[in-house]
Amino acid sequence: MAFGISRRELEQFKKEAQKGEIAIITHYWYDERFPQYKTVTKAGCADTARLVNWGKQYGLKKEWIHHREGLPHFDLLGENAVRILRAEGRTGQLERFRHALTPASDS
Q1: Can you name the residues that pair with 43 across neighbouring β-strands?
Q2: How many angstroms separate the Cα of 83 from the Cα of each of 67, 68, 94, 101?
Q3: pLDDT in tens, 65-86
């Protein structure tokens, strides 16, 4: 479930991805498998071959693509998400979620 984004933002992400564009969105998220992370960045594209090729430049493996939610996408966490958001010029998402993108410290 996505938190911290509007329905409009989510629909825009899906629309871009379904058109075969690389769409990227960050939102608040909780998964008990990764309790140290407060956000997830999704990079999705309906054209799986294009998504695989895009991911290669960031060291992402095609095996990491999720085919759930009817849209192929990578889930990016922590520093990996920050690195890719910077490289993709997604400064708005970086600024908006800056305090939640990296893992919570143990101290």
Answers
A1: 24, 74
A2: 23, 24, 10, 11
A3: 999 777 999 999 999 999 999 9
